[in-house]
Amino acid sequence: MRGLPASWALAAAAFGGFSLLLPVVPWAIAEAGGTDALAGSVTTVFMATTVLTQLAMPKLMRTRGHRQLLIAGCLLLGLPSLGLLTSTAPPVVLGISAVRGIGFGMITVAAAALVAELAPARQLGRATGTLGIAIAASQMIGLPLGLFLAEHFSTAPVFVLGALVPTLGLVAAARLPRIRPAPGTVHGRPPLLALVLPTVAIGAGAIAYGGLTSLLQIAAVGLPVPIALATLSASTLVGRFGAGSLADRIGAGRLLPVGLGLASVAMVPFALVADDRAGAGALIGAAVCFGLGFGIVQNEALLVAFRRAGTNHIGSASAAWNIGFDAGTGVGSLLLGALATTMGYPAAFAIAAVLVPVLPLLARFAGPSDPKPRPIESNP
What we know:
By secondary structure, the protein is mainly α. 78% of the residues lie in helices and 0% in strands. The protein contains 13 helices and no strands. It has helices at residues 4-21, 24-31, 36-64, 66-78, 90-118, 124-152, 156-173, 196-219, 225-250, 256-274, 280-309, 314-343, 345-366. The protein is globular, with a radius of gyration of 20 Å.
């Protein structure tokens, strides 16, 4: 378990800084008179450079190593935030968002891959579950804290914290062991087809998640949506760690259909709430159900990706999972928003209920059958 607490702490610091600025930068642009399109483009640019960086990460980890990339990621995610103190002009904000997205892409892939490298195979489920807890807990603090400081004081302390918190991850990075590629593992093509199922599974869940986090406040007017979203986040923690603990006992992937089923079923009461046919009780219940299901899907899809990739391609597995999550969240916000505009929120949530299980099922049929498990071995 050497190095795992440091990897969890670094991920928490990075995601804490990310979540502090996530709602505040678009809000600051709107307050300065910018258009809604410009405010929304900040997150779009950030996520675009994140995904592009994630695509390059498997090769970078083989040549540069996990720790070096995590250090670079912390610096790129954090320090450019100080530039927002000088200007919120569109070119400045979009440029800073692009650079920060590169750092975030480095951290998301390298942190998950490092946990798989360090954790003993028999404890990999709990190790990835704990990583999920560290990330989600920091976001539960960072998201409301950033908005609170911006609304009650100013954006300046948020921008300073957005630079400071990820930079504190360097303290944890100093305690990370050096991971070197094992002999004979630098070459060889990653099993891309084998990674289709876990990538699509996490992407399908993220589509629903992206739609909920973007649209629920609008679709459920007058209901306790902030409480529902907080409940969803807390339930995700429980689902992710619980799935990880069980996976160490019964094997990775067995709970994936359960998680997809729970997330799918939960979208039905969300649709009823949006149609004014259900109230606050159904909203909270749906949040609990979706959070548990999505948490299970998160951890199970990651473990299945690691298993299918094998020891030689842990970086590719981590990149595929993160791309599925981030791209799915962005697609969900855009797709379900478009569907809500043309068909209404109930129909959009109902369609998401179908997509969550159907997309992974199609990927299962289209891709290869689950290969013989290849062990994920920890480095000495």
